[in-house]
Write a structure and sequence with these properties.
Helix content: over 70%
Strand content: under 5%
Order of helices and strands: HHHHHHH
Number of domains: 1
Number of strands: 0
CATH architecture: Orthogonal Bundle
CATH topology: N-utilizing Substance Protein B Homolog, Chain A
Number of helices: 7
CATH superfamily: NusB-like
Largest sheet: none
Length: 153
Amino acid sequence: MRLRSKAREVALHLLYQIEISKRDCEEAFRTYFENDPQKQEVIDFARSLVAGVNKNSERIDSLIKKYVRNWEIDRMAVVDRNILRIACLELLFFEDIPPKVSINEAIELAKRFGDVDSSRFVNGVLDKIYRMESKKNDKLENNSQSQTQSPEQ
């Protein structure tokens, strides 16, 4: 398994543990890596994912809520919710990761750790978020460029 894929898996385990047990992040990290040592790159990327989800949870959750029909985020399966959070964090803040990679990694996590329909659910939500949000960003970028360009004479 690739290191970043492993880090996403570890981040999912940690977010699940933190949410279910209401543990402190640092305590969850310490006990997790004592029981399952990992390469430093895995630890660092997992830490950045967990910290990013925690720091940006309101923005991430509001984005998910915007594109999920007939679902309240609190009623989603904990695993699905945290997979979506990790992927949305990557889509919003990790410009070095192609969106398709974030979506595919999330689908793979859903297949491994979710229920029978999790991968389709995660794929559908992330596909909507990616398509709609990238359209908005393209429009904003085009408007910004057209306003800064002077008309030819």
